[in-house]
Write a structure and sequence with these properties.
The chain is an all-alpha fold and about 325 residues long. The protein contains 14 helices and no strands.
């Protein structure tokens, strides 16, 4: 990590700069998936407790983002996509980002433990550690498998939400974890394909940098095939149902079609946007994950309305 704390600041940091350290777009995904994990659990949670728990999970996610921006300030400065972030742009010092991340981590974990339970707090603490230390400090710069293993950090939120409600871990929460975990590689490798120049300049060993674009597209297809059964299996658990199955089936057909199209396509440097297919697949991947979790919410709402799919088999996992 390069020290960027001596960088001249063009102006004093504002609230928006510190908020940007929390990676609000990533935080919104964490909030959503954690909330789904909480709401679909077969235990009623008081609305005040639910709100407070999601708030502290969000703060923990923001803490991870701040610690990541502190550690990655040197490579963020090199990459066009991240040069405008608060630390590389000089609006916030790296030390301030680190202290914000550490303090928010302590607050989030402690308050979640006191508000909900210590299993949920422990999972949140492990998630912060995994993202900030295992992924950011070790895997990201060490191996092209960085996003495969590091994807676990983004997969924990629904499991944390489930633990808030139930005080435990179950096959349902493990499958929600698995859905995000298996989705992460094709999602980020699509991004890495059209951001390949940035990762190359920064020396980050993303798969397109180390193994080339053709191999990356092959791995996107492989992981897309491995991903498909996870959602379909989830449909046959107590939190699934025919609506979720239909949503998952359609999304997986589209996702596999998109991944196969990427694998088969021939790159044409004369195209106005030679990465149009990758950008399209990246956007599809966002809808893929979002709509799967919306499907779980719909099934939960139908159960709350006492609509029972008596014909639908459940494996009682």
């Amino acid at each position: 990590m390069t020290d960027v704390t001596t960088m001249d600041q063009s102006r004093d940091a504002e609230f928006g700069d510190y908020f940007a350290l929390l990676k609000p777009r990533v935080m919104s995904l964490v909030i959503f998936t954690a909330a789904v994990g909480l709401f679909v659990a077969p235990v009623h949670v008081h609305p005040v407790l639910a709100f407070a728990s999601i708030l502290f999970i969000a703060i923990g996610a923001g803490a991870s983002g701040a610690l990541n921006m502190w550690w990655d300030a040197d490579i963020d400065l090199v990459m066009k996509r991240t040069q405008g972030r608060p630390v590389p742009s000089g609006r916030v010092t790296a030390d301030d980002a680190k202290m914000l991340g550490l303090w928010l981590s302590v607050i989030a974990v402690a308050m979640l433990g006191l508000t909900a339970n210590f299993l949920a707090a422990g999972l949140l603490a492990f998630t912060i550690f995994f993202y900030a230390v295992v992924y950011s400090m070790w895997l990201k710069r060490a191996t092209p498998q960085n996003i495969v293993i590091g994807g676990a950090a983004g997969a924990f939120p629904p499991m944390i939400g489930w633990a808030v409600a139930t005080g435990g871990v179950s096959i349902e929460s493990i499958l929600m974890f698995g859905l995000i975990f298996m989705w992460t590689p094709p999602h980020f490798w699509a991004l890495a394909l059209f951001m390949n120049d940035d990762y190359t300049k920064a020396g980050v060993p993303m798969l397109p940098v180390t193994h080339g674009k053709r191999e990356t597209r092959k791995q996107i297809l492989i992981y897309s095939v491995l991903l498909a059964p996870v959602g379909l299996i989830l449909a046959f658990t107590p939190i699934g149902g025919p609506v979720f199955f239909a949503v998952s089936a359609v999304l997986n057909i589209l996702f596999l079609k998109g991944a196969y199209g990427l694998y088969r396509r021939v790159e044409d440097n004369a195209e106005a946007d030679k990465y149009a297919a990758e950008r399209k697949f990246f956007r599809l991947s966002l809808y893929y994950l979002f709509l799967h979790f919306v499907g779980l919410l719909v099934e939960s709402g139908l159960r709350a309305a006492s609509i029972d799919w008596a014909f639908w088999p459940q494996w009682g996992l």
